[in-house]
Amino acid sequence: MRLSLRFIIPLFLALGAIAYAVVPLVDKLTVQWFERDLDIRATLIANTVQEPLRNAIRAGNRSSLEPFFLRLTQDERLFAVGYCPVGGGEPVATPSLPSEIRCTDLARFSGEEGHVLQSPDGPLLVSVRPVDVEGAPAGMLVLVHDLSFVARRSAETRKYLFYFFVGLGATIALITVAIAQLSWRGWVQGLRALLRGEGLVRPDSFAAPELRPIARDLRALISDLEAEHRSRDDEQLAWTPDTLRAILQSELRGQEVIVVSNREPYIHVRAGDSVELWRPASGLVTALEPIMRACSGTWIAHGSGSADRDVVDVHDRVGVPPAHPAYQLRRVWLTTEQEAGYYYGFANEGLWPLCHIAHVRPTFRTADWEQYVAVNRKFAAATIDEAKSPDPIVLVHDYHFALLPRMIQEALPAATIIAFWHIPWPNPEAFGICPWREALLDGMLGSSILGFHTRFHCNNFVDTVDRLLEARVDREMFTVSYRGNVTAVKRYPISIECPPPAELVAKGVEQCRAEVRRRHGLPADHAIGVGVDRLDYTKGIEERLRAVERLLEMHPEWAGRFTFIQIAAPTRGRIGQYQEYEARVRAMAARINDRFAAAQHSPIALLVEHHQPDEIYEYYRAADLCMVTSLHDGMNLVSKEFVASRDDERGVLILSRFTGAARELPEALIVNPYDTDECATALHLALSMPLGEQRARIRLMRGLLQDFNVYRWAGRMLIDAAAMRRRGRLLERAAAAERTRPAVRARGGGGRRR
Ligand code: G6P
Questions:
Q1: Which of 142, 272, 301, 439 has a CB 3.0–4.6 Å from the CB of 82, allowing a cystine?
Q2: Can you tell me the distance from the alpha carbon of 326 to that of 80, in angstroms, rounded to the nearest whole number?
Q3: How far out from the chain centre does Cα 288 lie?
Q4: Which atom of ligand 1 lies at the shortest distance from residue 397's CA?
């Protein structure tokens, strides 16, 4: 309605202005036309009365003239008639002839057109015509017409014109309002589709054809914006904590950042009377911790350490890193049943094997699912509790929290939720065996951006949604529209800090080599390979040990000269599959060592224990090769850490083709872990590789890691989130305009701010 008024009021003003200018003009013209007509009429009357007038003059019968004139004035418009003889004789006139008209000054009334005289009787038109007898001028005939009827008609004309303009205005307004009503919805829908990016690819998809030219402009504008961001991303020389902070300040105006993950970055563990600080063996923590140090904000995670409760404040928060707090860790406490059902059960016996397809059958129990839902709710409540603004940026991590994005979005609709899935996403058939598949997908599609490490996993996810949900999948833009929300599915390959933190590479390579060899009782020239993993069946540790055994079969010259040190961090130990796996790995290492017991040094050193990051970096730097043989891995950051640690440009990486990292590090020796001979050959190749080739390969890989470090990973997500928020604001404005139209709002679908 307000929009209609905004249009109609100016319309009426414009019409009023037109009427104000046009009506007097029409009035003036009408009066002129009437005066001219009356003057022509006067000429006609003068011509008609010439003959009777001449006869009366010739006959000297002037007395007959007055009755004759009176008869003429019976015509209602002819007000008076008079005759003025030449030479000043007695004039003859009807009594109605105004006194202002005197025969002595008729000159002022002569002229081609009549003269208007304002008399007490009203406006009069005085026309004077000559009369001649036998060709000689005999006098002047004065004809006076009443002009008051002209004024009456002029008033009537003005009245009609006024009604005409009012009618015209009302008709135009009605037509306009009707057209606006009909096309507004189309415009709004078109604009919203455009802002969502749906109309950008197929302009023909607009409901309103009038929007097409705007679409072109908006397309150009958005691609400019995106190009600007792309170029900012590409031109960025060094991705550092400062770069990330600058992006947060400039692109996101210092908006608060909340991170949610199951695993916490620092674990406080009771050791006798004291409290120890542990850094968990987790790719997720490795990647996120430096980001949080750069961005501040709050990290919400499960408080799983035995001394975790002892160090938090009343709000369950503790500043970390403990030495120099840079951000808040908010701990969420879980009961034993919750941890058993949600973490060990649904997440790690269900989703973990489901997504990894590593020949361990997923187990789905309803009781586990119920705990999974309850714990997701608990974390949603903690997130809402921590949010200081209605529109925070929330980064939800991993398969523990598939339901969280939807729960947060329902409570904080203006939040920008970025969900990142750190593990692989299987194909639709594999995912389809999960009894709660639709609920999981629905939960994930509550996010604004959903990230995976590889394009392959993005494709699998989009295929799964297409197969299992009634959702609209746009493969051009890679978006999913579901329940009124649009989720962008994007590839963000995770990475690490590169160059690594100074304290991790402080000890020189030679020193690391010497210390590690001394610790394991190995001579200085002994070749060392390392593997660093959680003791998880997806990591292919059995396959790796089998490859070491095969190496010694194929190349016995390495027996006693090469030792493979496997660091295996205990993990998820309450799960039967993990207990069995650990037993198998231990047995295999023992069997192989027994087999080659004759050699002076054992081929395998298995360290099933937790190591701190500086200890792990010491092993990386001491090794001649690092072997990663995951059977399926979202990314695998061990491979990247090994490369980053080797500032001496030595060492060889052997990398499973089934890791996300294999796509980024092709200079590694890429292997199929199921092919034992290929892996053994790779080990031999690595051990014999000339230093020049080692340097060339490592240099290329280090270059890539320096360009694509973890700050860039996070920075790209934040830049995309900022762009999405900008689009969201545009959409909000369109929606606000739409809200001014109740009828349209009632029928329109709900847009969502991002
Ligand atoms: C993988 C998962 C992470 C998890 C890590 C350690 O990398 O993607 O979410 O933190 O394993 O597993 P854990 O169960 O010990 O947290």
A1: 142
A2: 109
A3: 24
A4: 9
Residue 500, preceding bond cis, omega within 30 degrees?
no
240-255 pLDDT, tens digit per residue, is 999 989 988 888 888 8
Q: Say if residues 301 and 261 touch (Cβ distance below 8 Å).
A: yes
pTM for the whole structure:
0.70
For residue 598, count other CB atoms closer than 10 A to its CB.
7
From the CB of 659, is ligand 1 less than 6 Å away? no
The token pair that represents 207 in the structure block = 């409901």
Q: Is the CB of 735 under 6 A from ligand 1?
A: no
pLDDT in tens, 205-222: 444 565 565 665 666 565
Residue found under tokens 């030679």: 510
CA 580 to chain centre: 47
The CA distance from 475 to 715, in Å, is 24
CB atoms within 10 A of CB 76: 8
CB 299 within 8 A of CB 259: yes
DSSP H or E segment with residue 336: helix 336-338
Q: Which stretches within 196-327 are classed as H helix?
A: 198-201, 212-235, 241-252, 283-295, 308-311
d(C-alpha 667, C-alpha 653), whole Å: 8
Q: Which of 259, 261, 284, 453 to mutate to test the pocket of ligand 1 (most atoms within 8 A of CB)?
A: 284
Our CA angle for 635, 370, 400, nearest 5°, is 15
CB 284 within 8 A of CB 322: no
Angstrom distances, CA of residue 513 to CA of 523, 624, 684? 10, 9, 20
The half-sphere exposure of 393 on its side-chain side, counting CA atoms within 13 A, is 25
